[in-house]
Amino acid sequence: MTRLFGSVRARATLGASLVVALALVAAGAAVLLSLRTNLTGQADGRADSAAREVASQLATGRAYDDLDLPDGEDAPVQVVDEDGRLVAASEDLERISGTGTDAVKPGAAAAKQSGGEDGGEEGDEDGDGTESAESSDAADPAERGEIDGDAEYTGGSATVDGESADYRFAAVEVSTEDKGDLTVYAGGSLTDEQSAVSTALTSMLIGFPLLLGVVAGVTWLVTRRALRPVAAITAEMSAITASEDLARRVPEPDTHDEIARLARTTNETLTALQTSVERQRRFVADASHELRSPIASLRTQLEVGAAHPELLDVDGAVEDTVRLQGLAADLLLLARLDAGEKPGEARVDLAAFVREELSQRTRDRVDVHTDLTSVEVAGSRGQLARVLGNLLNNAQRHAVSRVTVTTRADGAWAVLEVSDDGSGVPPGERERIFERFVRLDDARTRDEGGAGLGLAIARDVAARHGGTLGVREAPSGGALFELRLPAPQSSAD
Q1: Banded pLDDT at 106 (limits 50, 70, 90)
Q2: Helix 258-307 vs helix 314-338: angle between axes, to the nearest 10 degrees?
Q3: What average pLDDT does range 183-197 have in this prediction?
Q4: Which of 43, 277, 376, 392 has minimal CB crowding within 10 Å?
């Protein structure tokens, strides 16, 4: 179960099904409530109409026995006097609830009142053969009773001729002169409402699960189709991991969605990783090659010296040792830079810094001229010293008679330039010289040149300090290396 719901497709299907289920339940409840309210309102209308029809008959003075009551199954009716006694009711009414009284047969008082009225009429007829004035007056519209305009509604049930059903009862009050205040209760059947609600509920109980099944199935198929490229990417990444072949790439779908962007980003990452690994491999191979020469030379000299002390070349051994020491220092610095060593935030005045570094150089082949303007940078003094030293060493190897160091400010940048009057760098090689272990002068011997790490180290240090290092042609025709570093913001800024 945990593995199943660990799938994006399963979670998406479950989430879509839950959302649709909640929407269906809410919509179904609203439909049922609206249907029930509408049909209940219709039942209230039927009950009110029946009650007012009976109330109109009572208002005209009609006797209880002469009331024209609607059919009991359609609208059971009760007439209750002000004392709460039933005085008239629908025929075949066997049981009732939800009205003013649960009586279903009129009491003796109603029978007596009906009989008294009949006797009076009979006496009048025996006396003079005409109707009494009271009976005539009761039928006069000017003496009609008053019917209350508002009705009260209640729910209840009734049994008529053995059939039980639920009803909505309307209670309408009517005031008469001869009978006093009466209340007419008439019911509107809820059978249609219950049938309609039951049918709608049954349809929902059958249809909603089917609809949920369709939604879940469609979501499952759609997500499977949408996530199919992810499965291909996963399989290819697993194959790349197993084979360690970084030249392989994951398939990129022909869509413009997030998965396509993921595939492209993954391939870009693989490209960068392949470049980094290949660069590391070349670095290790070149470093091994560069280390092998001074070590082999030093070993040979020591072995010859051990066998023939008079033949020991001490100066050569010292030179190879110094060269080996410098190469090891360069390799360690490159390793620290590749590991992301932070340059620090120390403030360095470039003019004073250049003067101090030049004062410590006593073995330069040509003179170094300066044109220095005081400008500050933030960073590692040791790393900046390595950059200046590497640029000066490179200029000394190629200069004819002059090397110039310049410092100046250029807007938000501090600029340090080292130029020589040598042969310069061909335009097509001006980026390649910053690669590790690259030496353009293949004819010179290793003893005369470096290992090809100086300029690579200088550019890496510049990048770590947020700056740049480039080369262009100097006014004297040689090479001009320009180091640009961001000037630190003052506290006032």
Answers
A1: confident
A2: 160
A3: 89
A4: 277
Tokens read off for 30: 């609203």
Structure tokens at 277: 């690994």
Q: Cβ(435)–Cβ(490) under 8 Å?
A: no
pTM value is: 0.50
Alpha-carbon dihedral sign for residues 59, 63, 64, 70: negative
> Measuring CA to CA, how many Å separate 29 from each of 22, 35, 197, 215?
11, 10, 11, 20
Cα–Cα distance between 89 and 105 in angstroms, integer?
7
Nearest-angstrom CA–CA distance, 149 and 159: 29
Label residues 171-205 b or e (16+ Cβ within 10 Å = b). bbbbbbeebeebbbbbbbbbeebeeebeeeeeebe
Give dist(CA 397, CA 364) in Å, integer: 9
The residue type found at 490 is S
Torsion over CA of 272, 276, 279 and 284, rounded to 10 degrees? -170
Residue with tokens 């090659």: 289
Are the beta carbons of 369 and 407 closer than 8 angstroms? no
CATH number of 343-493: 3.30.565.10
Question: Exposure pattern of 28-54 as b/e (b: 16+ CB <10 Å)?
Answer: beeeeeebbeebbeebbebbbebbbbb
For the stretch 260-283, pLDDT in tens is 899 999 999 999 888 888 877 877
Which residues neighbour 398 within 8 Å (Cβ) at sequence distance 6 or greater? 420, 422, 423, 478, 479
With a CB cutoff of 8 Å and minimum separation 6, the contacts of 239 are 248
31 backbone dihedrals φ, ψ, rounded to 5°: -65, -45
Domain boundaries, the chain: 23-196, 246-341, 343-493
Phi first, then psi, for residue 471 (nearest 5°) are: -135, 145
Positive or negative: CA dihedral 147, 150, 152, 158: positive
* DSSP 8-state class, residue 410: E
pLDDT at site 277:
84
User: Is 378's pLDDT higher than 50?
Assistant: yes
Cα dihedral sign, 241-245-247-249:
negative
The answer to whether residues 101 and 77 touch, using CB atoms and an 8 Å cutoff, is no
What 3 state SS string does 326-393 have? HHHHHHHHHHHHHCCCCCCCEEEEHHHHHHHHHHCCCCCCCCEEEEECCCEEEECHHHHHHHHHHHHH
Q: Taking a C-beta distance cutoff of 8 angstroms, is the pair 350, 377 a contact?
A: yes
CA–CA separation, 70 vs 55, rounded Å? 12
**Neighbouring C-beta atoms of residue 226, cutoff 10 Å:** 17
Q: Which helix (H) or strand (E) holds 257?
A: none
